[in-house]
Amino acid sequence: MSTIAKPQGASATAGSLPTWTVLTQATLMTGLAGFVDAVGYTAMGHLYLSFMSGNSTQFGMAVAGHDTFVVGWAGAVIASFVLGAFLGTLVYVAASRIKMTLVLACEFVCFAAAWSLQGLLATNIALLFVSVAMGMQNAIHEAIAGASTGKSFVTGALFGVGDALARACLGRTRFAEAGANAVSWLAFIVGVTCGALTVGSLGVSLAILLAAGVLLVLLTLSFL
């Protein structure tokens, strides 16, 4: 799991409530992950672009079933995600005050590449750039009220709800931590719903374009 990162210019510790900017950034990042997962699920034969647990399950099932097509594409998506995590972490660690902005800018470039190549190459190949972007995003997920949010996977968020509720009952944390994890999960669900509706009615290209627009909003917020 990526190191929990605090966003520049904002306080997001367990002892203080997050600013609206930090909360908006984390919610949009998680929603974006759900959105592109729906796009990948629809366009890549039930593979995901950010949910690597699901892809790993598909990979293992395909190996057992000798389905070389799914093995190849699931492996390609997983490798793309790992590459993105590698590049995103390099940028985040090497950069200074604008590390979050630089990583988001790299994500935007990946989405732009996916959109540009979607009509030139097979959709599966173009969408690998989106998976690279999702790997990058995990380098900059944020801590809100003690909860790690903004990631492209939400199993931890669901566990975090139960874990934080238990610790809050024991007086060891605030109920706000459970709330932050719950918001993260809900943001993912909303993102998946919007992604499914968008790709179903507008197609893959416009869905990628809309996701890139969300990244532009995130880029803008990173300057605040």
From TrEMBL:
InterPro entries listed in its UniProt record: DUF1275
Keyword Isomerase annotated: no
Keyword Membrane annotated: yes
This protein's UniProt keywords: Membrane, Transmembrane, Transmembrane helix
Residue intervals passing through the bilayer: 26-49, 69-95, 102-132, 182-200, 206-223
Taxonomic superkingdom: Bacteria
Pfam families in the cross-refs: DUF1275
PANTHER family, per database record: SLR0142 PROTEIN, UPF0700 TRANSMEMBRANE PROTEIN YOAK
Protein name: DUF1275 family protein
Lineage of origin: Bacteria, Pseudomonadati, Pseudomonadota, Alphaproteobacteria, Hyphomicrobiales
